Amino acid sequence: MAEEPQLPSLPSITDDWDRKKRFIEKKHSIIKCGECNESVSRLFNLGDFVFKKLPDEECEKCHRTKSLTIVEIYSEWVDPKKK
Ligand SMILES: [Zn+2]
After folding, report:
1. Virtual torsion, Cα 9, 11, 16, 17, nearest 10 deg
2. Beta strand segments in the chain, E
3. Closest Cα partner for 61 from 32, 81, 83?
4. What is the model's pTM?
5. How far is the CA of 70 from the centre of ligand 1 (A)?
6. pLDDT tens digits, one per residue of 18-67
7. How far is the CA of 16 from the centre of ligand 1 (A)?
8. Burial class (CB in 10 A: 0-12, 13-18, 19+), 31
């Protein structure tokens, strides 16, 4: 029994389309502390936007409030089949 030749899969527009259908978008917000310059990434919350201030949240590093600002929001595509 001869094995099927394994062709390397070439990226194409169709593949990319399939990928977007299968993958789920996971959004993150990067929050920076104005006091200690620590930046942390956490899951995106509804209502988050860049330059939004988070006066009620405490910095993980210096434990100050009123110092956190969202500096970036990014999303990644996650394969739901992979854990
Ligand atoms: Zn801090």
Report:
1. -70
2. 24-33, 39-43, 68-78
3. 32
4. 0.69
5. 13
6. 666 788 889 999 999 999 999 999 999 999 999 999 999 999 999 999 99
7. 40
8. buried
Token pair recorded at residue 11:
């990226």
Measure 26 CA to ligand 1 centroid, in angstroms.
Answer: 25
- Decide: residue 13, CB within 10 A, 0-12 exposed, 13-18 middle, 19+ buried: exposed
C-alpha 41 to ligand 1 mean position (Å): 13
Side chain identity at 78, as an amino acid letter?
V
Strand order in the sheet with 24-33: 39-43, 24-33, 68-78
Give the HSE-up count for residue 26: Cα atoms under 13 Å, Cβ half-sphere: 10
Non-local CB neighbours of 28 within 8 Å, separated by 6+ positions: 41, 42, 43, 44, 73, 74, 75, 76
Tokens in use for 83? Answer: 């854990």
For ligand 1, the distance from its centroid to the CA atom of residue 78, given in whole angstroms, is 30
